[in-house]
């Protein structure tokens, strides 16, 4: 079934539509709470005896979980158990506990930052910190889904496997851990991106300039906003991540896919991922010019990458999947 057929099936399926709306609200609120905490707290200032990028982990986990779950369960995605109606009596108590957990998490983390000697390398404080973070997730989930429905979802093997893979990827391969094999190649790619973005920006506004610097990073200047073009702008992280996730998808679906078509689709996807990265850098500079530099280099810069990557990856899979599937003759 093609992507448009799946969308039609989703629209006509009341149980899935209800689940999708509720799951979307849950995801948006969770992301909003994580982003808010990320803006208010310098997480790297809290030393809890474990080395991890606290501020990146929740969002990374959620993104990877959504990607893995949609890819692994796309064929039977719309066959979900009907949900009970959401009432104020069920929603308000658990959502109140969720908000209390958010404020408690904020206060506890601030305490650890202001009193580093108290919580440094303490197992107890580490456990309490993670339990408060878990409480945010649990109480928010219970606000939208009752315990029996969460148990039903937990029995879904795709859900469990997706969660395990998402934990693995979120811990081991955060976006900023994709260090390029060749710094010189990454620098070259970043320069290509910078010059292309400069050309695109010059179409929409005057006063755009690209200033190369042999000793430091090149600078891209637009009216009211200036930023360096570093290796992270090269797009290599997204290209590598796309190749890895696409390969995992191909392995999961290998019995149904034509190997030759998969090998053709992979490099095409990587190339378009590079173009998506150009769009990302372009959008950051447009935001810096038309909104303000703080917004562009803050919350927008932090989130536009994973939003764009998720949308592109899912669209690419659902568009190319019908084409990559083996013909009936080959299956026989």
Secondary-structure map:
Blueprint: H1 3-12, H2 14-40, H3 57-72, H4 88-114, H5 116-119, H6 123-144, H7 147-154, H8 157-172, H9 183-204, E1 209-211, E2 219-222, E3 225-228, H10 236-252, H11 259-290, H12 293-324, H13 328-331
Helix pairs in contact: 2-6, 3-8, 3-12, 4-6, 9-11, 10-11, 11-12
Task: Note down, in words, how this protein is organized.
The chain has 332 residues and is mainly α. It has two domains: 171 residues, no CATH class; 149 residues, no CATH class. 71% of the residues lie in helices and 3% in strands. The chain has a three-stranded antiparallel sheet, with helices on one face. Helix 9 packs across helix 11. The chain is globular. It starts with a helix and ends with a helix.
End-to-end Cα distance: 19 Å
* Fraction of residues in β-strands: under 5%
| Largest sheet report | 3 strands, antiparallel
Uncertain runs: 49-54, 174-178
Order of helices and strands: HHHHHHHHHEEEHHHH
Lateral strand order in the biggest sheet:
1-2-3
Structural class: mainly alpha
Give the number of DSSP strands.
3
User: How large is the count of helical segments?
Assistant: 13
Tell me the count of domains.
2
> Based on CA inertia axes, which overall geometry fits?
globular
Kindly provide the radius of gyration, computed on alpha-carbon positions and rounded to a whole number of angstroms: 22 Å
**What is the residue-mean pLDDT, rounded to a whole number?**
78
Kindly state the percentage of residues in helix: over 70%
């Amino acid at each position: 079934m093609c992507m448009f057929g799946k969308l039609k099936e989703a629209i006509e399926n009341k149980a899935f539509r209800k689940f999708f709306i509720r799951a979307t609200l849950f995801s948006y609120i969770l992301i909003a709470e994580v982003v808010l905490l990320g803006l208010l707290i310098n997480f790297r200032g809290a030393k809890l005896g474990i080395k991890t990028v606290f501020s990146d982990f929740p969002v990374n986990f959620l993104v990877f979980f959504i990607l893995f779950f949609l890819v692994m369960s796309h064929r039977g995605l719309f066959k979900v158990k009907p949900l009970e109606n959401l009432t104020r009596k069920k929603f308000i108590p658990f959502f109140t506990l969720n908000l209390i957990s958010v404020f408690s998490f904020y206060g506890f983390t601030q305490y650890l930052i202001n009193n580093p000697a108290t919580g440094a390398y303490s197992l107890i404080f580490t456990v309490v910190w993670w339990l408060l973070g878990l409480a945010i997730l649990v109480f928010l989930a219970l606000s939208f889904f009752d315990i029996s429905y969460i148990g039903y979802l937990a029995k879904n093997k795709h859900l469990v496997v997706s969660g395990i893979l998402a934990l693995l990827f979120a811990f081991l391969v955060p976006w900023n851990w994709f260090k390029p094999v060749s710094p010189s190649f990454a620098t070259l790619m970043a320069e290509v991106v910078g010059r292309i973005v400069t050309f695109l920006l010059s179409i929409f506004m005057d006063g755009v300039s690209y200033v190369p610097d042999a000793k430091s990073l090149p600078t891209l200047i637009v009216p009211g906003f200036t930023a360096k073009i570093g290796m992270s702008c090269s797009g290599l992280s997204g290209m590598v991540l796309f190749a890895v996730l696409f390969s995992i998808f191909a392995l999961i679906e290998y019995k149904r896919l034509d190997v030759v078509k998969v090998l053709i689709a992979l490099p095409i996807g990587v190339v378009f991922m590079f173009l998506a990265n150009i769009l990302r850098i372009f959008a950051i500079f447009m935001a810096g010019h038309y909104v303000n530099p703080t917004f562009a280099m803050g919350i927008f810069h932090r989130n536009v990458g994973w939003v764009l990557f998720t949308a592109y990856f899912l669209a690419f899979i659902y568009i190319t999947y019908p084409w990559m599937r083996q013909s009936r003759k080959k299956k026989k």
